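Hi there,

I know you've been waiting on this one. I reran it after we fixed the sequence typo, so this is the corrected version. Both the input and the resulting structure follow.
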Amino acid sequence: MVAVPSASPRSSAVPSRPLRRDAELNRARILTAARELFVERGIDVGVEEIARRAGVGMGTLYRRFPNKDALIEAILWTTVDDIRELAVEVAATEPPASALHCFLVRVLLADPCHGVFLSRRLWIGRTAERMVTEVVPQVAAMLAAAQRAGTVRTDVVLADLLVLMRSLRLVMDITERVAPGSWRRSLDIILAGFRPDSRNAELPVPPPAFAMLAGAGEASPSIG
């Protein structure tokens, strides 16, 4: 499991003071390089390779991010921002009956790096708190609206959506090179089971606790 630093994430995720223009550019290059390499090579890629891809020295990287945990935390911090803004936009522009479906598709398409984190046990500490307080209520509202509109069965819960997202990310990883876009078929099949008219009987297994699922996933190697 990744050991996220106990200090406030603003020490690395969000600079406490405005950076000089060159320092801000270097920070952006490092984050971009890290996101690209996490998608291409996985989260175990070394910080030396990230610095090389960003075109900066190791000293510059460590001035911006004291360790790899801080770099991951900064990406997670922006991921929360991205998903929250997307949820707000979709809820405001899409009808309740289709907003949840639209949101799920757009999250999966928005940034390949999001998928790197969806199935890994990295959502702990302050970034997890932000996800729970800033994103989960938005998604819960879309789910409730879809249920009121009659497009999602009433026994679907947030934990079901989390399982759906993680499962589809794995499908995307497996099929994207050989059958790009085929994950949409999987999404439609799963969502068909979410519709009220698919309900022939009570679900035989109760849903797991959302909090328990949020901490589950592929075990991450120790990094630093």
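Quick highlight: Residues 162 and 213 are 8 Å apart (CA to CA).

Best,
R. S.
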